Write a sequence for this structure.
């Protein structure tokens, strides 16, 4: 009797791994599909474009805006007849602002859905996850707003239509010098975000090279709420301005606490600042502060104003940088497909690489040899709770 | 069929060989399988290893550990560091004949290296935690998981906050499922051996076990070390599959996801845990449209399970007193 | 020197919030010997309750501020008691193992966070100014905001109030009785279930107050805001001696100070890890905490 029960244990415990493994093998044998590398599905009529964005989760506002812009562009393109006689169909996936999802999503879009190209993502970390898959499958990827230089370095199928952080750092240093006219700057960066750490480094190098002095550098972790300790230390170093290359949710609080501590120096930062929450959280503390970004809806050109009107009519809000870049990424892709004359990966890739002076909403886009876009930066200032255009600074 | 089952149960080594052959067969067909499905299979395999190894610590030894993702992180970073920094100096050129074999052997060593580093971490975590019970142990292991994560976030040579990119894609179905088989075999064999009764004794009543002369300290450490080793192995496999690892991906939530698998499967029930791991890897894929409800669903599942069926979903044969009494 | 005192002010105000949350942890642990993981999320719900209630009352007014706070506290007291009724009491009745209750607590915590994300949205919301604010600065260059002072004062008031309740009232005596010995308490006629419910309600109300004060200090709220402060408050409770009310306050203040000084130093990026390191050190060297008594485990 005892022997039977002992065996019973072992049978139920040991057979299972094999049984499960065999079951999976059988299922796979049944669903045998050849992997599709290029999306050129002959039987299908539409041109499938893949997109992945953070539609939910912590960075939902970025992802949603970017997605709206892309969606608007695709619909507009289809109204005008699509490309090569076919309409576009947009396949969007949500990566929930989480690590680890983007690779599977990219793989799914390419292997299962058969997209010809992928648009995404806003965050450099997630673009980096998906890039190796796109590169390996020879599917072009266009990131609308990932600024970390490593993204396009993955391979020649990865493109971006925004500037990179090294550029942004240099331009901000120039801004600090020429417009703010300060020589002593303190830096407060987010150690948990490579974007912030990178931008801080590039800014510091450029500022020091131009003769400026970094009087203090403090760090925080993204998501922290209390910065008084760091700000108190910064205050004692008496900076003329404080550079904060972080994200809007933290910057809002930082500005509040800085003012509470009696810090009156002007504050400035990078494109991570751009969101309405900066003002709703920061209130009067962020009045008069500056930040760099890719696009301003104040641009008085017919192209931009037309876009702003259409976007507002459809989504009820004024488009921001993410929306503009999402829009441009889709438009550029369509343009490249038309120039290539086909949807095959390698040809579209070549057409993208050859882009010169494409009239984007976010500026004229020329793709350089690193597959980055050469574009001017826009400096905005917070005035009366809105973002006002101050100046353009060209990348050199 | 019953004869076959009995035969396999009696000679576990035979079962082991049988499984490895199955894995080899799967690997040979892998080039004909759609890339997406291959990805999902890889994820399943990695999650199975994580769940089974956690089951050893939580289920069989009754030590509630909430920091398993930390061990995974150690293994991932160590294995990646080995292949990325040591690899180019040791491996022959890409074109040469023995390259594939050399890569395979080297990868194996890197994985083991990752596992050993994680095992060491498991030892370091286990040592101070030994005298703690239940709630405290959970919080401390959670704390250790977070500390490990913060440390990696601050090490710039391993990528810092952006994480480590450009890890060579060495993981394939063979390594993943081979590791699954090895891990399962080791854990099950250990627990079902005479020595292994000690784990269950520690779980059921530690004071009584101590009174009977068992070195409960040693058992707990062994559980942590072995569990951590395989978590590190899974981490190494994960790193060379995702090609890009990031401290944020090894946070408390990841540990919780593994814990849910162990609880759903039934703590101390290896077969159930494997089934739960498979199910909880496939569900998010099938329900991609409902991704935002996933965590709500998991958390409700935990609560409902504890209230109605704490022994887990997959426990059919009630051989021993279940860990979590209803 | 100014730097030191400024950091002191910062540390004490941060510590006060940790103390307030820690009070809730310690009370529940004292009575039930279990860590209510969901406490940190009740804290978050309190902040959001304050956010939504504030729409109906005037901003920057003392009356409005107090009303909103009281309403939020009431809401969370009900929430806490509901959780206890639905999730913890059935397990207690069945004499479940400790592990089962722990897992349930984790489940409830995750549920609140993720449901909160669905209901409130995952983005950061700006918490309005409930009370009129003023910034104070001294001759020496020290700055403090009225919110910081308010937090400190409110925490002290609640602490004293809680001690009074526990030591001087009938229900407080009942709470202490239940914490010594459940069975004996019910033998002398105490309704354990009611006392436990009351404890949860009280603890949750304190968490809500903590949530609102925290949101006043750092006016950016999101569904996950409770996790890190909750964990740190737990460390504070353990530091002071879990089950010990003054201990929780002491632990909170100490932890706030330690954190602030670390943040102002070169090692600021390790701040989160510091809290856990403190926990581990305390558990190794003085598991009873600073003010606690070591309890022998009886077989």
């Amino acid at each position: 009797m005892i022997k039977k029960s002992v065996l019973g244990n072992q049978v139920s415990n040991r057979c299972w791994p094999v049984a499960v493994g065999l079951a999976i093998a059988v299922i796979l044998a049944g669903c045998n599909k050849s992997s599709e590398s290029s999306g050129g599905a002959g039987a299908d009529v539409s041109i499938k474009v893949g997109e992945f964005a953070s539609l939910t989760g912590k960075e939902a506002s970025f992802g949603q805006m970017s997605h709206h812009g892309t969606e608007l562009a695709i619909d507009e393109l289809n109204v005008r007849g699509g490309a090569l006689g076919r309409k576009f169909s947009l396949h969007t996936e949500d990566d929930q602002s989480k690590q680890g999802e983007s690779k599977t999503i990219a793989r799914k879009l390419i292997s299962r859905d058969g997209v010809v190209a992928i648009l995404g993502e806003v965050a450099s970390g997630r673009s980096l996850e998906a890039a190796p898959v796109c590169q390996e499958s020879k599917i072009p990827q266009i990131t609308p707003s990932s600024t970390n230089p490593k993204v396009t370095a993955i391979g020649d199928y990865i493109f971006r239509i925004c500037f990179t952080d090294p550029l942004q750092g240099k331009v901000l240093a120039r801004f600090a010098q020429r417009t703010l006219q300060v020589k002593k700057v303190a830096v407060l960066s987010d150690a948990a975000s490579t974007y912030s750490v990178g931008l801080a480094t590039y800014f510091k190098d450029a500022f020091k090279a131009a003769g400026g002095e970094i009087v203090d550098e403090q760090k925080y972790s993204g998501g922290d709420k209390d910065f008084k300790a760091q700000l108190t230390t910064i205050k004692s170093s008496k900076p003329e301005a404080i550079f904060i290359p972080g994200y809007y949710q933290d910057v809002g609080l930082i500005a509040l606490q800085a003012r509470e501590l009696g810090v009156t120096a002007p504050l400035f930062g990078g494109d991570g600042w751009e969101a309405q929450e900066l003002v709703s959280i920061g209130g009067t503390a962020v009045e008069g502060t500056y930040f760099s970004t890719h696009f301003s809806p104040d641009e008085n050109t017919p192209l931009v104003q037309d876009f702003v009107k259409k976007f507002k009519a459809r989504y009820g809000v004024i488009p921001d940088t993410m929306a503009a870049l999402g829009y441009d990424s889709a438009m550029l892709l369509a343009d490249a497909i038309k120039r290539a004359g086909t949807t095959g990966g390698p040809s579209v890739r070549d057409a993208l690489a050859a882009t010169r002076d494409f009239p984007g909403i976010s500026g004229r886009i020329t793709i350089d040899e690193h597959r980055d876009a050469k574009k001017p930066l826009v400096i905005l200032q917070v005035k009366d709770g809105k973002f006002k255009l101050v100046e353009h600074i060209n990348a050199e | 069929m019953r004869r076959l089952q009995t035969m396999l149960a009696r000679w576990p080594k035979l079962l082991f060989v049988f499984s490895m052959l199955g894995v080899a067969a799967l690997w040979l067909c892998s080039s004909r399988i759609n890339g997406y499905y291959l990805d999902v299979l890889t994820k399943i395999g990695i999650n199975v290893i994580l769940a089974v190894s956690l089951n050893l610590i939580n289920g069989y030894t009754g030590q509630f550990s909430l920091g398993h993702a930390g061990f995974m992180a150690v293994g991932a970073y160590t294995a990646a560091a080995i292949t990325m920094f040591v690899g180019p100096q040791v491996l022959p050129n890409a074109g040469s004949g023995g390259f594939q074999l050399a890569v395979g052997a080297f990868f194996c060593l890197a994985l083991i290296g990752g596992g050993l580093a994680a095992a060491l971490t498991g030892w370091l975590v286990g040592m101070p935690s030994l005298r703690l019970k239940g709630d405290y142990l959970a919080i401390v292991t959670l704390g250790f998981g977070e500390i490990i994560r913060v440390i990696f976030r601050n090490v710039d040579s391993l990528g810092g906050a952006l994480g480590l990119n450009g890890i060579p894609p060495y993981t394939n179905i063979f390594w993943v499922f081979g590791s699954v088989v090895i891990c399962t075999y080791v854990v099950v064999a250990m627990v079902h051996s005479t020595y292994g009764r000690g784990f269950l004794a520690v779980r059921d009543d530690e004071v009584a076990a101590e009174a009977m002369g068992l070195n409960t300290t040693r058992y707990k450490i062994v559980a942590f070390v072995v569990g951590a080793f395989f978590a590190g192995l899974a981490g190494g496999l994960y790193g060379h599959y995702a090609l890009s690892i990031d401290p944020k991906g090894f946070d408390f939530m990841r540990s919780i996801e593994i814990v849910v698998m162990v609880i759903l499967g039934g703590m101390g029930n290896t077969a159930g845990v494997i089934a739960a791991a498979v199910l909880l890897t496939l569900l998010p894929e099938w329900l991609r449209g409902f991704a935002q409800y996933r965590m709500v669903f998991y958390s409700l599942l935990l609560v409902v399970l504890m209230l109605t069926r704490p022994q887990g979903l997959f426990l059919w044969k009630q051989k021993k007193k279940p860990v979590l009494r209803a | 020197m100014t730097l030191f005192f400024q950091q002191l002010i910062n540390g004490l105000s941060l510590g006060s919030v940790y103390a307030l949350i820690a009070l809730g942890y310690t009370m529940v642990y004292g009575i039930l010997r279990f860590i209510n993981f969901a406490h940190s999320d009740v804290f978050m719900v309190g902040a959001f309750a304050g956010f939504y209630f504030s729409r109906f009352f005037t901003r920057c007014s003392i009356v409005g501020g107090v009303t909103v706070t009281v309403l939020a506290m009431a809401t969370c007291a009900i929430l806490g008691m509901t959780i206890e009724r639905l999730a913890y009491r059935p397990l207690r009745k069945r004499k479940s193992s400790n592990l089962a209750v722990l897992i349930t607590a984790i489940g409830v915590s995750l549920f609140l966070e993720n449901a909160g994300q669905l209901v409130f949205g995952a983005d950061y919301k700006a918490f309005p100014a409930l009370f009129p604010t003023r910034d104070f600065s001294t001759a020496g260059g020290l700055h403090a905001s009225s919110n910081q002072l308010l937090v400190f004062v409110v925490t002290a008031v609640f602490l004293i109030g809680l001690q009074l309740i526990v030591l001087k009232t009938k229900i407080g005596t009942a709470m202490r009785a239940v914490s010594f010995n459940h069975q004996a308490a019910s033998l002398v006629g105490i309704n354990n279930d009611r006392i436990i419910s009351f404890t949860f309600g009280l603890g949750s109300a304190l968490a809500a107050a903590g949530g609102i004060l925290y949101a006043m200090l750092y006016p950016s709220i999101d569904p996950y805001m409770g996790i890190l402060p909750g964990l740190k408050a737990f460390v504070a409770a353990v530091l002071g001696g879990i089950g010990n009310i003054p201990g929780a306050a002491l632990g909170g203040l100490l932890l706030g100070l330690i954190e602030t000084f670390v943040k102002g130093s070169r090692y600021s990026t390790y701040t989160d890890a510091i809290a856990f390191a403190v926990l581990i050190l305390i558990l190794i060297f003085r598991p009873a905490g600073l003010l606690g008594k070591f309890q022998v485990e009886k077989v």
Remarks:
- The first strand of chain B starts at residue 164 and ends at 165.
- The CA atoms of residues 188 and 270 of chain B lie 7 Å apart.
